[in-house]
Amino acid sequence: MKQKLFISVFIWSFCIVVLYPQARVIMPDSIGNQVTNGSLIVPQETQLPIGQSNQIDHLIHDHGAEADSLQRLAQMTIWTIDTRTGDRFPALSDTLLHNYQHTTLPDGESVAMGFLGPLGAPSISKIFNDRPETEQFVFNNPYLSYLKKAEDLLFVNTRVPYARLDYQRSGNKQTREEQFGARLTSNFGKSLNVGLDVDLLNARGFYNSQSVKHNNFSLFGNYLSDRFEGHAFMNLGKISNFENGGITDETFITDPESIQQSFTPRDIPVKFTDTWNTVGNNRFFISGRYNLGYKDTPKDSLSRATGEFIPVASLGFSSQYTQQFRRFLSYDTAYVNVDGVQMQNIDRFYANRYYNEAVDDSIHYTSFKNTASLSLREGFKEWVKFGLTAFLEYDLRNYSMRDTVGTNRLQHRESAVTIGGVLNKQQGDNLLFNLRADLGVLGVNLGEFRAMGDAETGFNLAGKRVILSADAYIKNLRPKYLQNNYYSKYFKWNHDFGDIRRVYLGGKLFIPFTNTTLSASVENIQNWIYFDQNKNIAQESENIQILTARVDQNISLGIFNWDNQVVYQTSSNQDVVPLPELSLYSNMYLKTKIVNELTLQFGIDAHYHTKYYVQGYEPALLQFYNQKEKEIGNYPISTVYANMHLKQTRFFVMLYNVASRVIKPQEYFSLPGYPVNPFIFKMGLSVNLHN
Q: Which helix (H) or strand (E) holds 12?
């Protein structure tokens, strides 16, 4: 009864939000997450000197985004880059005040997430549009939220040295989850900036054999002058994830009273122990771009040295070396008798065994990618209304994995040559667009094709800006080598899958009067590659249609605020692409200043989706597979929190999974066999240091 009442309150509340157009509203802080390569929210790439306003001001003031804890640092400029072309895109810092506590949770990555429980463990978005393309090294996919990439890095140019320290923690000594992050960056002169990022995560896990450890160290730098722009990035990263295969008895979660004995989450039985996945990522990136142009000398000046440099065209080059590995190892090798057959304990959970020794599967992958580009810059003359870039890319890839006899290494080398271009208009107010295309012309990606585009326009209505945007793509994707070929103790395959074909069309409308964002999209997929109910990789030749509709609605009435995100999804083939029909994130809070310098946000939020056969997780594959044994959903994962900001310091306290204290039966599962963390207290702190 309590569960139905809780769900009814959230659905009823959302209806009020949608039907309440008179409310004054504010833009969510998530606008910072929308500034990505190719995004049309930012009108043009940053070219202004440090200390002057840029297009980020357009984001904050025109769209009403709440300023972050660096709002007084006008002398800082932040951007991301396109690793192929070297284009720079203005970006917001990751120091926004609003909902800071939400960014520290796996749940915060999407409206609906599937994850193993601990922070840093494998995860998958239950919103199909939030899932990126499959990586060449497919074992990275479950950790995409935590990987450090050059295209996601926030490069900086700053007049004063800057440092940020982050720390979050939950649990006692046996179950502690903690994460420490640090960024230190400083300029050496006007043009050169060097920085260091550190991200250390250690989650012992609230359930048995579930600890996670991340170590990430990154060096980055950039050099900017009129003629030359250079960027460099190096990341050394390693993830170790202990695997337990999931709990074996859900009664410990759903009906703990029936166990009739005292126990902790660590006492709940799991499938196996002493087993772990290790994934490593070392990335090295460097790019340079030489600008061709002229000095725009003022008419009243006699010296060309006083003129502003106007870039007309650019010659660019970038080089990336990626070194990645994955190892699945188990010492859960005690022999057990299963139907008269002696086998190691972990073996009893798998139908096939392709070698007899203890499981020790490993694979290594390297990629050496070089790209040359030529760009015509937008706006160097009034009549030049767009920018144009062409590029040529060569990628050399190497794979090495243990073969089926367990003594030799299977070696594979392949190369791919890609040509492509970008046509964009990022300046002005009436129409912005970005068209991108690439074509595989030689090697394993021969015939692979992507054509992607997005456009944005808007108009002023009663002094407010209404924004319309659309995006679309057509893709013909070659299967990855590891989707066609794989060898391990429990799984092996050798396929010749066909090309994956995807056609997508989406649109979005922002209504400023009610702070409502409406979006919808449809996608047709053919030859989708997935893991079936038997955990075998398969390809569906029939067409699959994915329809998505989303409403983002925020309310602000004085100090009372209510943010809502609702996503409706349908899949024409739930056996191949299972999706929840309705997913909801609702966040109700009070936000006010207690004193002049202290801001308080106090509230309760919840993630909820309808029941469906969510994908399961297979540790031996480090992949998610389709299953028909357990439906998950119709249960909110909620928090009660207080998020505060004092000068350059942000901090929060949180009670996680509070719904489990009032709703019976307790069904706080994210994936089959994997409950989220139990009711716990969590806290976090972030401090900006600059002088």
A: helix 2-18
Phi, psi of 57 (to 5 degrees): -60, -35
| Residues 580, 208, 406, 409, CA torsion sign | positive
CA 449, 286, 49: angle at the middle one, nearest 5?
105
- The sign of the torsion formed by the CA atoms of 532, 538, 542, 544 equals positive
| Domains identified in the chain, total number | 1
Range of the domain at 184: 2-690
The mean pLDDT value for 534-538 works out to 96
Residue whose token pair is 């079936």: 532
- The 10s digit of each residue's pLDDT in 591-623 is 999 888 899 999 999 999 999 999 999 999 999
> pLDDT per residue over 421-455, tens digit each?
999 888 877 889 999 999 999 999 999 999 999 99
DSSP-based three-state secondary structure for 359: coil
Q: Is the pLDDT of residue 10 over 60?
A: no
- The amino acid sitting at 648 is Q
Are 492 and 405 spatial neighbours (Cβ–Cβ below 8 Å)?
no
* Contacts of 206 by beta carbon, 8 Å cutoff, 6+ apart: 117, 118, 171, 175, 265, 266, 677, 678, 680
Q: What is the CATH number of the domain that holds 255?
A: 2.40.170.20
pTM for the complete prediction?
0.88
> Distance (Å, rounded) from C-alpha 668 to C-alpha 687?
33
**Which pair of tokens denotes residue 109?**
């990555």
Please compute the mean of the pLDDT values over residues 58-77 and round it to a whole number.
Answer: 52
CA–CA dist 662, 665 (Å, integer): 9
Average pLDDT over residues 403-421: 86
- What is d(CA 153, CA 670) in angstroms, rounded to the nearest whole number? 29
Each residue of 161-192: pLDDT tens digit?
Answer: 999 999 999 999 899 999 999 999 999 999 99
Decide if 18 contacts 553 (C-beta within 8 A). Answer: yes
Contact by Cβ (8 Å): 136, 367: yes
Query: Closest Cα to residue 323, out of 393, 396, 377?
Result: 396
- What is the DSSP track for 444-501? TTTT-EEEEEEEEEEEEETTEEEEEEEEEEEEEEPPPHHHHEEE-SS-EEE--PPPEE
**Spatial contact of 666 and 253, defined as CB atoms under 8 Å apart:** yes
